[in-house]
Amino acid sequence: MIALLVEDRCTKCNACVRACPTNVFEAVPNGVPRIARVDDCQTCYMCELYCEADALYVASDCNRAEQVDEQTVVASGLLGQFRRDHGWGEWSSDPRYQNQHWYMGEVFRRAREQVGVRSDD
Predict the structure, then answer these.
(1) In which element (H, E) is residue 33 found?
(2) CA distances from 30 to 9, 12, 14, 27 (A)
C-alpha cells in the first residue's frame, strides 16, 4: 500500500492523482497531493512509475498500511527504485534497466516504427 509521499521532493504535478486507478490521491490546489484513501490502494505501483520526482513510496504489503520512517526510506535509496527497475522514463535508455513492460506507449511506438506504420494511422 502507499506508505509515503515525500513533500520536499514533490513537484505538485499531480501525475500520481491521474495515474492511480483507484483514486487514492486527492489533488490540492497549488499544493502537494494528499493521500486521501489509503485503504483503496491496490499496490499497483502506478503512482511510483509516474512520479518523476521519486517522491512516493509504496510498501509491498497490499493488505494493510505500513508505517514507515521518511528519513529511513529516503536514506535507503528505495525512492525511484521501482521506476529504475522497470526501465521507466529517463531510465529507458540505461542498459542496466531494460524492462519496459510497464511503459507500453514507448514500446508500441517503437514497434510501429519497425513495421513502418505512421503514428497518425
Answers:
(1) none
(2) 15, 7, 10, 9
Q: What distance in Å separates the CA atoms of residue 64 and residue 16, rounded to the nearest whole number?
A: 20
Q: pLDDT digits over 56-97, tens only?
A: 999 988 888 888 999 999 999 999 998 888 777 776 666 665
What element of type H or E holds 77?
Answer: none
Q: Which of 74, 64, 28 is nearest to 43 (CA)?
A: 64
Grid cell 521518511 — which residue?
70
Neighbour-count burial of 15, counting CB atoms closer than 10 A to its CB (0-12 exposed, 13-18 middle, 19+ buried)? buried
- For residue 102 the three cell numbers come to 510497464
- What nine digits make up the cell of 25? 490521491
Q: How many CA atoms lie within 13 A of 42 on its CB side?
A: 7
57 or 119: whose pLDDT is higher? Answer: 57
How far is it, in rounded angstroms, from Cα 66 to Cα 3? 6
2-85 topology per CATH? Alpha-Beta Plaits (3.30.70)
